[in-house]
Description:
The chain is of the alpha+beta class. The protein is built from 14 helices and 36 strands. Strands 29-30-32-31-33-34-35-36 form an 8-stranded mixed sheet, with helices on both faces. A 4-stranded antiparallel sheet has the order 3-4-5-6, covered by helices on one side.
Amino acid sequence: MDASIIFDSFNNTCKLLELERAWFGEDHSDEIHSIWRREDCASNQHLFISKINKGKNHISSSKTTKPGIFTFNQNRSLRAHLYNENGQSHLEVWSKVNVVESFNLSNNNIHGLVYDNGPFASLSWSPNMKKFAYVSEALDLKPQTSSLNGVAKFQYDSSYDYNENWGLYLLDYSNSVVCILDRDTSLITTIPICESLFWAQPTFLNNSSLLLMGYDKLPFKYGLSMMPEKYCKLFSYEISSKTLKSLVGHRRDVLAYSLNKDNGSIACLVFNEGSRYRNYQSLIIIYPDSDVIHEIPNSTFCGPFLSGSLNGWLDNDHILITEQVGIRTLITKINLIYGYKDHIQLDSHPLEKEFSFKVLDLRRSNLLFRFQSIAPVNSTYCHGIGMVNVKNTNSLQLLTKPLVPNPTINVTISEYERDGRICNYILITPTTSTAFSKTLVVNIHGGPSHSSSHVFDKLTHNLVAVGFSVIYVNYTGSLNLDRDTNLDLFGRLGDIDVKDVHFIVNKIVLDHSYHKAVVYGRSYGGFLSAHLIGQYPDFYSAAVLKNPLIDIPTFNTTTDIPDLFWKLFNIPYDHQFPPVPTGDVLTTWNNASALRYVDAIRCPVLLLLGSRDVRVPPTQGLLFHRYLRSRGVKTWVKMFPDEHFLEGEVCFKRECFLSMVQAFTVE
Length: 667
């Protein structure tokens, strides 16, 4: 059946144009965040939100600004704007109404384009307002002409040089440098490039020194959060003497830091020493002047994906962190003296128990946050932006109300036990019957160190609006389970996690009399999905795999995280001298791969692949497609010019969804 035809019978609740605009479009967190940084939201927030176009939020502002990054000076009287335009880099200083100072950073040919978006975009203003620190591309210092025996000259063409990509999220980055601009002289200086470390995230510690994150170029892949053996240190840099100093010691790797501008102390989330797969962080406070490091008691947080976000200082004795608590993400206030943890309370507001939260920014005690839920019972909101004074939670204001078609649905959240381990699941079902009401879509999260949470998901709402039921299963290894259960996955991939998922899906199918179960997974979720249709070929009726991992040995040679399965199978790995897999290692990986079950698969399989994916390269999905097709299995491929998550364009998401519905309904 043509998936576009399916919507004809459901046009009262999910017209295709509504889906494109409201479900497949981006949310407005970044826009609200940008406005917050441009103006003093604490006193003027009511001026900036206007609801037009049937509820879609747009930002109304008296100024038109170019894309880039912004930062205020300490007293918020001036705003700096860093951006690229027409191949040139610019930095502007704004008053409340106009530009008061402008610098063309490309004039002196000191560096390439500045990073004005992405994970390394950074702009810091010195306390005395005389300097800026930012990150830019380093210039290519290779000679443009060469000679043969001192006689013949030829033009050097660097376009043919091979440059290894920096991994997921960072495909378009080149070698980088931290720069310091002096406002008085317009002079730009750069921090010396280190052969082994990449400098990023500069913040002025005081007028004469910077804080810098130093990433090991080889094992860390320049900042990827997935790396089990990440090496990321916090340094101070004295500008005049050009001296570096490590602030955390060689055994402590830093995930994030936040500077207290009142007293100069630094809060850091560090990876716990000795953790087998570093998903847990601890909080420490560094006092640079005295070289004292204070370990905060009882401060272990789960991460690194949805949780462990260091949000900022509430006052000198408290800091805010977003952490994973069960299936929700909550904002936690930490007492830095005693380590007490308190979740921010909203005084019995419906948001309190039904939503997950993410901090967007903290100004004084005013907290700007995003809230979202799968299906709130006591609210018409599925997600939005709110603001609250942390010291007066009665001050809650809801700043946005997105137009989100919210079909009436039921949500069941429950735990289950298998072999002594406690896992959980989330079942989302429509309240009205359709042609698809008896089809259960099993949506499996990736990772494996990730989790399915109580958050709004556009894909799930699309599927439920059409009439499908959807189940999320948090299997052994999921971050929202206890640590012991999380670590039980080591050495048992493709086995214990697959059985966890099938155990509860089989129970739900029997209890709710579903006629068929279909499976969807991305990345490692695709790996488990391929296992399920191979290990239980008579149970699952269709599969949609988005950039799936299929064969571990070949994955290991092409991914940007080559150490992953060494660590997950407890096999030693050295980034400086990568080991060659032995016959025993390859046998272990082959036995855990989904490809070994290809001969048993009978259901239709749709593969959604990104041609620019370096996390799970498309060769994995194409390999699976080739094997399935040769065995007479109905299989087809959609290839998108995108990266791992296939979320770069609205049209990609729309096509993925329509193809998915078609795959789930094919006979």
